[in-house]
Structure formats: C-alpha cells, structure tokens
DNA sequence: TTCTAAGCGAGACGGTACGTCGCGTCTTTTG
DNA sequence: CAAAAGACGCGACGTACCGTCTCGCTTAGAA
C-alpha cells in the first residue's frame, strides 16, 4: 500500500482497527473495474460492491476516485527495477520494456492518464501522483545512470545541479515518449520500436554529455 | 470549425438554418469553462449558459462533452506552423516553443490530456482526436524534415516506410516529452529547457540516421 | 391538489410544463406506501418508483417527506362535509363518523399523526398542516353551529370573539377526542362510542352556553 | 426508571454490573436532545456522546430510539397526581393544569407525539407506551372519580363495565383535547382556557351520568 | 488473591436512505 | 422549422445514521 489519508499515527490504539484485507480488496477491485469499465464509467459504489465492502468503508480511506486510482495503479509500478544487463543500452532497453509492459495493462493505461488529467488544477493530487508514482520511477534513471558511470560508459557528473537537470530531462523523454506512443498514437511499444527509440536516445545523451 | 456530427448534408435546404454564431459562441464558452473549471467540473449545461444558448442547440451539434472539447481545443492548434529559420535546429526550436506555448494555456492543458484519457476504449473519439489534432501536428514534422533535406542537413530517405516510422518516432519523442514535462512534471518548457532537449534530440536523430 | 411550493405563477409560460399526471401519481403512491409501510419506513425513492417517476421530479415539487405526506392526506379530508340531518345531535354524529371513517384508513392514521409530530419545531410545516387540513375541518364546526342556530337549537352568539373561542374549543374537543381514541387508545370510534361521546359533548355545550 | 429490555434476570450474578449512573445520564441526555433537536434530528450517537457513554452501552439497554424516548419522557409523567382541592371541578382543573404543564415542556411535546406516531403498526411499542405513560395517567381519572363519589358529587356506579367505559371516554376527552389544543392548534392551555373546557366537560359528565 | 465474565470507550463495519448534480432526451411556446 | 426554456428519467455522488462487530481496558464478585 501507498500513503493513505491519515497514515500511521502510532497513537491509534483504541477502537476497532481498520481491516487490512479491505484495503487490498478495494485496490484489487479498483484495478479490475479499470480494466472492465475504464476510468469514466468506474464508480466508487461499484468498486465497493466488487470488493465486498460498504461504500462508507471506501470513503473512510480515500477521499475520492482520483486518490483511490492513484494508489491502485501505484502498486503496479512498484515492481519496476533496473536489471543489470551489463551495458547502458541493455539496461535502458530492459527498463523501457518493463515500463511498456506495465502501460500495456489496461488498468494502468486507463488509470494513469486519467489521473494525470484530473490533476490539472489539483495540486494535492499532483503531489500524490508525484510521490507515489513518478519519483520512484525517476529513481530508475538515477540508478541506471550511476551504474553506467561505474562502468565508465558515461563520464561522472561533477555539477550535481546539472546532473539533476539531466536526469529530469531523460526521464521526461523516456516516460513521455513511451506514454505518447502507447496512449496517443495507440501503437505498441514492442522490442523493435524500443531498439529504434533507444538508438536515438543513447546517441543523443552521449553526444550531448560527452 | 472542425468536422461536426451530421455536417454538410447537401439536402439541408429547408427550414431555419443553424446559427453560425452559435457554433463560435459555444466553442469559445467551452474554452473559457475549461480555463475556469477544468475538465471534470465543466458541464454542458454551464457551457450552454455561457454561450447564451439552449442545451438543445448544443446537443444538436455535438454528441457529448468529449467531442465538444476536442473541437474547442483543435482550433488552438491550427495556428501551429513551421517557421523557416534557416536551420533544422532553429526550426525545431521554433515549433517546440510554439507547441509549448499552446500547452501553456490552461484550456489546452486541461482539455487535451482529459480528452486523450477519455479516448481510452473509445475508438471513435480517438480517431476524432487523431484527425483533428494529431495529424496536423505530425505534418509539422514532415515539413521540417523535408526542409532540412532540401538544405542538405539530413540525407534524403530512400525507403518511404522507414521514413514514415522515423517521423512517427520523432513525433512521439517531441510531443511526448513536451507534454510530460508540462503536465506530469509540471515544469515550464522555457527556451533554456527546449535548447537542452533539442540538443539531445538532434544529436540522436543525426547519429541514428547518418 | 393542495398548495405546492411555487404554485401557479401565471408568468410560467415558457419551457415544458410540469406533468399534472405526475402529481396525481405521486400523491396516490404516497398514500399507498403509507398503508403498506407506515410513516417511518416510507422512502421518497420508493414513492417515486411506485409513481413511475424519477426522484428528482418528486423533489422538484415537494421539499421533503413531510410536505409530501401533508398534501397526500389532505386530499382525504376534502370529502368531509356537514350533512343536514335535521338536528344538531344528528349533524354532529354524522360529521364525527365521517371523521372517524377517514382516520380509520391507515394512510390517514399513519400520516396525520406523524406529520403533526414532525411539525414540532417546524413552523412552516405546522402552518401548512393548519392551512391544508385543520382549517377546512374547523369550517365544519362553524357550519354545524350556524345551522343549529338557524334551527333555534342553540341561541345566536352576540359576541363574535366569544363565538370564535367556543368554536376553537369545540373543535379541539371533537378532533382531539376522536384522534386520541383511535391513535393512542387504539380503539374503534364506532357508532355506539360516538353516541356516548356526543351525549356528553352536547350536554356540555348546551349547559355551558345556555 | 421504567422497564428495561432484559432487566432483573436473577441469574445475573457474575461479571461487572451495569452502571446505574449511565442509565440516568442517557435518559437526561435524551431529554436534552429532544429539547434542542426535536425527535427527527435526535440521533442515538449524539445522545451517547452527550451522556459521555459509548453507543454500545446505550444499545445494551434499549433496542432503539423509540424505546429510549418512551422511557425518557415517562419519567416526566411520574410526578402527576390528583390534589384534593375539595371539589370535582377543582380537582379536574388541577390535574389538567399539571398535564398541560408537562406538555408545555418541549421534550414532552416533541417526544410524546412522535413516539405515538411511531407506534402505528408497532404493537410492542404501543404496549410500552400504554404501560409506561397512558395507564398511570388513566389512574388519575379513576382516583378523581372515586373521590367525587365519596363526596357525593356524582352517584356511585353500579355497573363496573359501564364505569370502565365512562372512565375511558373521559380520559380520551381530557387527554385528547389538551393534546390537540397544544400540539395541533399550538395554543397554550392556560387557566382561562382550562376553566372554559372544564365547564363544558363537567356539565356533560353530570348531565350524561345523572 | 487471582481468576473471569461482563461492562465499557472507541471506532470500524455493512447497510439504507438521503438530497443533489449532471446527463442526454422530451415537450412546450416563441420567432 | 430552429431556438429558448425547462421538465423529465436516470444514475452516481458523498453524507448521515443505523445497529453490529471487534478491539483493548476496567471492574467487581467467585474461587
């Protein structure tokens, strides 16, 4: 689970504790509903029914549809990690393919884009998305970069601020391109396409940084 | 205006003709509402009121919220064009800045992402978006590419299919990165950032194609 | 129909007019639900369903359960009238029996007492009850009194204020006693009981006034 | 206190005994809530909070809102008694004024009528009301009658069944008229009105019985 | 004195109804 | 015939109480 509304106050001793099973059931039901109905036809009442839970139980934990869906799909991105495949190109290919695989799941596709759309003009929601989904993805870029520097594939960065900017840029390029390919162009991000994309990306990075 | 629902029936001779002013008023009201309310709080009843029009009139022309918003924001993208600045880098920079300027407007930001989200699982809507918004943007990539080839900056492409794939990829990279920067990372796409982005992109393109 | 919320503004010309059939269906459904469910289990959603009408239609006309039920049972009391049976005793007996007959219907019994209970601390509701139900019953007392005076059974009242007080008192005695008998004591107000009651009442009136 | 749910099981020897203070606090809180909120806005959760008691504690003693309120207001009627003022008229006046004084308290007014309304179609509740409230009031009529017979103001009744019917009738007239005056007509039952009422009542009784 | 069964506070839980909002359709009158 | 006005059926919303159910902790009589 990700961060809830009134997370882990250690002084919550009294009264009946919240059911942990309910959390899991609700999040699973949310993903299932996202698959079957998509974002706009997804109903909190329906999710509650699928989870075998009362609507009030759901509202006790999440303040609305957006927050719920963020947590539901955030779990999908937790499995992302950088596999050490021996070279920067292979590492990037592995991560991008993992990312594409997750976005290939309808619940992620339907949920992520909708929740980002909803975050326009809702700073709290945007922050939740950033914290629960974006930051832990960006961590992959950092990891891959450090590993490549250790291998000597790219030079170590002396200016930490410039490094930060570079990481942000690379992350925007990778995530943005894959998302645009799959959600707007509605084309699959298969191995062949990923290879062509990475060829351009790697050439750009090494040329620009070298 | 873009394509409507049952437009251009040539046999529409009899009866009171539809008010052309109403169309413009509705689309303008839609953009205004997108700015003030965002996508999810925008209601068709409110748009009709703002436009000084009955709900019936609105529904006679558009089948729903999504279609209306697609047409409303498509008009914003019509002003995009490739300025001939003498070099590929300068041309790309110009286009990306124009694109970023449009996405900087709240009605475009709020409307575009939401409408793409809504298109998940609605093929007709996705096709409308592609026709009204995406394709005419992709045309910019084609134009810029041809101009660069005419200048000799990049070699002419012999295989038309590969050229098509390359154009799609570049478009996904450009549009996806800018959108991700502005909507997900919520950072401005200012000149400094665009220059860094284009440096990577151009190096990648020329290296990969050369 | 009784008085509604925004009754008969003569300037309501434009737009689709409210369905008169819906009013009748809703009031009938309300009475039916009062019979089958009683006051506390009666639901506005259920009434709407029974009437074949949307909940919103119901709320457009009445502001809540109490107002609806007042109008629904007020129709039952409209049929009350003073039959001219030739003597004051017979007239009173006739009216009381009619009144008892109406209170014998479960919808009246369940609805009236509940709505009076609800009116504690709700002056608008109390006024609605008085206007729709009480005043037109009190008129019966006035009619019966005038008729008896015309017959010479009771002397004409010179002081109009004293007459008004007398009418109020008699009305409280008659209505209160019958209601208490039927709702609190839960005993039938049959002819035999009514005769005994009227004997006391008439003796009291004539003695006190004579 | 009146009769509880499972009170006085003689086998209740072991375990922590129920707090007697809680009972009193709950009933007092109920009356206070009746005054401030009226019947329909009174909630058991709120009563529990006011009484400084958990909802569980409340439900352990009463099965619902109606039962609780019956017990809460029944205590108010316990103080009623027939003062020996030397004449039937004076006795009746005293009792009616006491009764009116109790009904003048908002908790009694709001609670009594609502609970009677709720009892429509709930025989157990009606029986509880009769046992806790009605019967001990009717006892006043019996007492007053016996005292008047002892004084020789009214003849002794030979037929016990007829006496019972007469007592019921007088009780319905007195209680019904006062309740109707105060709750439906929403007028005060002051000394002046009570005198006029009793004049009619006494004349009726003596004439009808004599 | 320890054991133990019930009472007690707190509050989560499955429900049901609430009253509102927006949708997209329909039925009016007006122009 | 279109347009404005607005009523209509529908379905979801988020909230409020209901009455029940765990929890961990007294509390007082029985062993």
Protein described:
Four copies of one chain form a homotetramer. By secondary structure, chain A is mainly α. In chain A, 71% of the residues lie in helices and 0% in strands. The first copy, chain A, has helices spanning 20-37, 44-51, 55-61, 65-77, 88-104, 106-118, 123-151, 160-184, 191-209. The radius of gyration of chain A is 19 Å and the shape is elongated. Chains in contact: A-B, C-D. Chains C and D meet through helix 1, helix 6, helix 7, helix 8 and helix 9 of C and helix 1, helix 6, helix 7, helix 8 and helix 9 of D. Chain D binds a DNA duplex (31 and 31 nucleotides) through residues 12-19, 22, 43-46, 52-57, 59-60, 63-65.
Of all chain pairs, the largest interface belongs to: C-D, 47 and 46 residues
Shape of chain A: elongated
Pattern of helices and strands of chain A: HHHHHHHHH
In percent, how much strand structure appears in the residues of chain A? under 5%
Q: Biggest β-sheet of chain A: count, sense, barrel?
A: none
Mean pLDDT of chain A: 91
What distance lies between the first and last C-alpha atoms of chain A, to the nearest angstrom? Answer: 41 Å
Computed structural class of chain A: mainly alpha
- As residue ranges, the low-confidence spans of chain A are 1-8
- Number-wise, the strands of chain A total 0
Round the Cα radius of gyration of chain A to an integer and report it. Answer: 19 Å
What's the tally of helices of chain A?
9
Helix content of chain A: over 70%
Oligomeric state of the chains? homotetramer
């Amino acid at each position: 689970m990700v961060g809830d509304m009134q997370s882990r106050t250690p002084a919550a001793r009294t009264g009946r504790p919240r059911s942990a099973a309910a959390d899991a059931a609700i999040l699973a039901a949310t993903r299932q509903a996202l698959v079957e109905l998509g974002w706009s036809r997804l109903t909190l009442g329906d999710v509650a029914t699928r989870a075998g839970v009362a609507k009030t139980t759901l509202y006790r934990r999440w303040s609305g549809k957006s927050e719920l869906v963020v947590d539901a799909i955030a779990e999908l991105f937790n499995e992302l990690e950088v596999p050490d495949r021996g070279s920067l190109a292979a590492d990037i290919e592995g991560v991008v393919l993992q990312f594409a695989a997750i976005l290939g799941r309808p619940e992620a596709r339907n949920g992520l884009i909708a929740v980002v759309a909803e975050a326009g003009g809702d700073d709290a929601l945007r922050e939740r998305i950033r914290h629960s989904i974006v930051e832990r993805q960006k961590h992959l870029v950092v990891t891959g970069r450090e590993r490549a520097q250790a291998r000597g594939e790219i030079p170590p960065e002396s200016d930490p601020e410039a490094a930060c900017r570079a990481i942000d840029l690379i992350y925007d390029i990778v995530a943005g391109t894959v998302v645009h390919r799959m959600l707007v162009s509605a084309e699959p991000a298969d191995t062949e396409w990923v290879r062509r994309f990475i060829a351009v990306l790697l050439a750009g990075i090494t040329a620009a940084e070298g």
